[in-house]
Amino acid sequence: AAAAPMISSVQKLVLYETRARYFLVGSNPAETKYRVLKIDRTEPKDLVIIDDKHVYTQQEVRELLGRLDLGNRTKIGQKGSSGLSRAVSAFGVVGFVRFLEGYYIVLITKRRKMADIGGHAIYKIEDTNMIYIPNDSVRVTHPDEARYLRIFQNVDLSSNFYFSYSYDLSHSLQYNLTVLRMPLETLRTETTQTRQESFDIFEDEGLSTQGGSGVFGVCSKPYEKYVWNGKLLEAVKNTVHRDWLLYIIHGFCGQSKLLIYGRPIYVTLIARRSSKFAGTRFLKRGANCEGDVANEVETEQILYDASVMSFSAGSYSSYVQVRGSVPLYWSQDISTMMPKPPITLDQADPFAHVAALHFDQMLQRFGSPIIILNLVKEREKRKHERILSEELVAAVTYLNQFLPPEHAIIYIPWDMAKYTKSKLCNVLDRLNVIAESVVKKTGFFVNRPDSYCSVLRPDEKWNELGGYVVSTGRLQTGVLRTNCVDCLDRTNTAQFMVGKCALAYQLYSLGLIDKPNLQFDTDAVRLFEELYEDHGDTLSLQYGGSQLVHRVKTYRKIAPWTQHSKDIMQTLSRYYSNAFSDADRQDSINLFLGVFKPTEGKPHLWELPTDFYLHHKNTLTLSQNRRSYTYWWTTGVLKHLPLPFDEVTCAENRHKLTVKKFHKYEEEIDIHNEFFRPYELSSFDETFCLAMTNSTRDFMPKNVGIDPSPFTVRKPEETGKSVLG
Fold first, then answer.
1. CA–CA gap between residue 603 and residue 503 (Å, rounded)
2. Where does residue 70 fall: left (phi above 0), alpha (psi -120 to 50 degrees), or beta otherwise?
3. Edge-to-edge strands of the sheet including 49-51?
């Protein structure tokens, strides 16, 4: 038996309205299977949703809508007035939200395909529609409703929010592919036990679980930290079928095609921004009492050979790294109107309680070793950034006393600003040394065993590689966590260098290059650098309000002079954004993520002097369970290290899975149908894989002559944008 991710059967939606109800009709792309939600419009404040969990055929849905139309006409037999009108077409439900009056429903009305991972499409939201549910006749108006609505809509859902119907974007590729093997392992280990216990994980008992040509459809619970509409779906999560629930991430997603003599390799960059303690620069710094840090983003680079599509037969590789604010209680006072407000430590934390919670989360998700690369300034005339370094060193030293030495947190301080200013050394060469040692320690994920060519021509670097080798390939264990003060410019360049180093290993493991090294100024690295610049700019706009100030080119010292005037503009733009628009953006993020819930008789969002109490739960209630100062990790985590606890086959993790047995050709697991859409009329020019950035079209110089390899170093005059493009 094989396993495959389950594909949601609700991908096209139409909302119909009568005076008393809304009917949300969802169908699969082929329009052969339908589901219907009934939403009551007569309740002024409550949300009443009925999902009959029945799967309708096209014929049945037509009859149902026809009957509703007839039954809701004002006078029987009247032709003109229709009882049921079509309100809006959509591609998914973002969620339901309520302020002071009734509920609204938020629907995705436009989407654009941004990437494709093994046939699973990833879409960006291009437009949404917010519809008020209760009927006008029962509406109880409130004077402040409009203002809340304005604040909520200030979160622009059409900028950098992503979703997928079949691929879990909140988890890494390593997790998603590891999970696919869990039901098979479960079956193998548990067939000896009583039948009763062993199949609590399988949903459908109808098909025999023993043998057969069936396929397990697997659906995992999303990782809540990176889901942005979790609170909006809370009201309906337990009442509707899971296909209605579409989880959305915020951050960045970009994909380019690297052509190696015509062989298509897709390079994908996905960044997930944490929805816990989220907000804008200067207003969100450090960590909250639960160990969630500000500006925390997980960046994953996925590489796969696009000539073979399926997860089971194709070659996939990925590498994950993290950025996030220094995990201490610290802040900066922006009322001073200085470009660099002084850093203050708000609470003494001698037992590194917050850092412990933060690193505990990381051990569970990534395993060990956790490597901290701290790019904060070490030498300053006035002690400013150094405050953070000193505290962080103390915290890490304290926490490491209790961990087994082989799983200790590794701390690398490196003052990037100082090295940039010095004439003697090249920043990127030095970063490259750090990157090599980091990738060597963590390894990376690849879903196939080493290729025969690396056995024939062994590379000494390859044999020293860390990570965890299993029969099916390699697993990444541990993660690099990079931070500067803002986690924007310096961090992005450092992450790019580590990513470039990992990319070389990934290409080598798939047998595409003969040594795990990549040179600057090759088509491959320029393509990768452009992806990383977009990624950095996008994350910087979300947190700092402007694009990157220092780019990879700045640190390579080949940036043209026009770049410097741009830099000054970006710095000013950031300063302006921080001073004037950040407070409004912070308000809307707090409302959107459900950190603040409007309540009758309580102060309004705009009346609060600070949102400190909303983000630090322990200021309002004392928690009952106090964590140990010495055993600071969750039980069970140490037992499995260096493997992450989240990816181990155990009862606790099995509860996060829904597994269902399907016949081989059912469309819930048929990725071929999902990708090629044989029942739709499509035109060649609009195919996604032709439109995406392509190394030969966009980066290869025109006068290349006989060397089209993307791994050849090009001369400076050749590296302008390709003439063909």
1. 51
2. alpha
3. 49-51, 34-40, 21-27, 12-17, 85-90
Residue reference for tokens 């999303």? 222
For residue 503, what pLDDT is reported? Answer: 98
For residue 710, the 8-state DSSP code is T
Q: Which of 29, 30, 84, 27 is nearest to 56 (CA)?
A: 27
Taking the C-alpha atoms of residue 28 and residue 30, their distance in angstroms, rounded to an integer, is 6
Q: Which residue from 366, 368, 438 is spatially nearest to 171, judged by alpha carbons? A: 366
Could you tell me which of 387, 384, 324 has the C-alpha nearest to residue 354?
324
Q: Locate tokens 């100062």: which residue?
A: 629
Peptide linkage before 642 cis (omega within 30 of 0): yes
Q: What is the DSSP letter of 99?
A: S
Q: What is d(CA 108, CA 88) in angstroms, rounded to the nearest whole number? A: 10
How confident is the model at residue 576, as a pLDDT?
66
Side chain identity, residue 555: Y
Q: CB-based contacts of 254: which residues, under 8 Å, 6+ apart?
A: 114, 115, 268, 269, 531, 534, 535
Q: Does 44 sit behind a cis peptide bond, omega within 30 degrees of 0 on the bond before it?
A: no
What single DSSP character describes residue 363? H
CB-based contact 219:197 (threshold 8 Å):
no
Cα distance between residue 582 and residue 544, in whole Å = 9
Amino acid at 8: S
- Per DSSP bridges, beta strands 34-40 and 21-27 are antiparallel
Distance CA 719, CA 711 (A): 13
pLDDT of amino acid 197: 41
- Return the H-helix or E-strand segment holding 332: strand 330-332
pLDDT score of 186: 76
Cβ neighbours around 241 below 10 Å, total: 17
Distance CA 511, CA 530 (A): 24
Q: Write down the pLDDT at residue 631.
A: 95
Left (φ > 0), alpha (ψ -120 to 50) or beta: where does 440 sit?
Answer: alpha
User: What's at 703, amino acid-wise?
Assistant: N
Distance of alpha carbon 719 from alpha carbon 207, whole angstroms: 58
- For residue 148, give the H/E element and its range: helix 145-153
Alpha-carbon gap, residue 309 to 517, rounded angstroms? 27
Comparing C-alpha atoms, which of 384, 374, 278, 375 is closest to residue 339?
384
> CA 679, 684, 685 angle in degrees (round to 5)?
135
H or E, element range at 161:
strand 161-163
pLDDT of residue 579: 63
251 DSSP β-pair partners: 272
Intra-chain end-to-end CA distance of the chain, in Å: 46
Question: Quick check: 724 and 702 in contact, CB under 8 A?
Answer: yes
Q: For residue 492, which phi and psi values (nearest 5 degrees)?
A: -65, -40
What whole-number distance in Å separates Cα of residue 155 and Cα of residue 595?
Answer: 14
**In the chain, which residues have pLDDT < 50?**
191-201, 204-211, 722-725
Which 8-state DSSP code applies to residue 331? E
How many angstroms from the chain centroid is the CA of residue 254? 12
